[in-house]
What does this fold into?
Amino acid sequence: MATRVARPARGPGWGNILVVGAATILLSFTLMALSFGLSPEPGRPTAMSPALLIHIGTVLPALPLGAYVLLRRKGSRLHRVLGRIWAGLMVTTAISSFWLGDGGLSFIHVFSVATLISVPLAIFWIRRGDVERHRRTMTNVYIGLVVAGLFSFAPGRLLDTWLFA
It folds into this structure.
């Protein structure tokens, strides 16, 4: 049987605003740092495409933030705010992935499609009060993020070229 949780309706507090602000600043600095000196060709710095900047700029904070949200106490206001930020980062990462590569789709885009289906589904589950399905769905999205990240280091892919060529 699903666990149901009743939540009181609350507006955003100062803590929520600070968390969102800190996440925005972190994302901005990540994007700025990434825009300098990275190149698909070793030894030749060039500017990255906006889609790649968005993709990397959202996936980098999503990795530690997702782990934090999954490992911390559930149901608190902080969990909900950070979870919303993480879900937004994941959806943005998934959408931006469709503009990466050489114009075609690859097997790694399966993770993007799964994310675009799973995140709204997880929101649906938690709004229905089905905490267990929400937890499983969001855990699977995070595992998918990690697995897709590992695949992005496969020989011949961009991250492999940047880091190991």
Remarks:
- Residues 103 and 165 are 23 Å apart (CA to CA).
